[in-house]
Fold this protein.
Amino acid sequence: MKFGVHTGLQNTTIEDLRSLWRRADSQGFGWISIWDHFYAADATLTAEGTSSGSVCFEAVAAHAALALETTNVRCGSLVYCVGYRHPAVLANAAVTLDHLSNGRITMGLGGGWHQGEFAAYGMDFEAVPVRLRRTDEAIQVIRKLLTEDVADFSGEFYELNEARCDPKPVQERLPLWIGGGGEKVTMRIAAQHADGWNIPFTPPDVYRHKAQVLSEHCERLGRDPASIEKSVNLTLAWSDDDLLERFGGMTDWIRPSALTGSSAEIVDRIGEYADAGADWVIVALRAPFDIDGLDRFVAEVMPAFA
């Protein structure tokens, strides 16, 4: 089992983020990621739109800071919303980030879900099938731009005409991941186009089922399921009070998958995810960051999987 940290960019400061990134980079984690939101995930919504929860840093800029602040970890995104930026923008950003990090970037992509953000900025919140078709095209466009000298593409949403994205990444193949658990479309996109797949806050039995669905898509497409890295985001809360402090109204949704209890209980829970097919457990943190709790996780849980 490999371990990572996912850092929410809401209700925090740049200095707190930089301190957290440096600490995790030195503790044996293999991954640190940022999210892509303009508002907090639990922002309050009203009939007029989003009324609170607007303290949140932008993802691409934060991703660059993460790349420069660390030396060891893979620097990921979980996940960039393809509805917020043209995929050519994301491809060029990915290349720049990869050079900043000396080849440590992983770019996660998804269709987006935070309707309040779309409404606040006057962006069209497309129906789910449309967002998924857009995601399908976006990952293809990005792959072409990252790997082909001259890229052409003609789709429902995007068009490339002898498009170039230079320089190329430092990595021979910059990994592209797909985030989400939709079994008919999202996971088919992951099986067809992605190097990795991520889903957040999913209990072990559900994760096992989703991983099997991904394998079935791979088999239909003639792809080895083992060629896709599989990860799960899980919150770490040593007590229910900690969980409530960090997730508020989302606590009941988060609780079934949270890493809680004693160290031994958390080790056992992570073992369930390993048995269900996960390659990575990524600890999802949001402010106020529990540094002592993360240190305890490093000292008491991670050695069980060394």
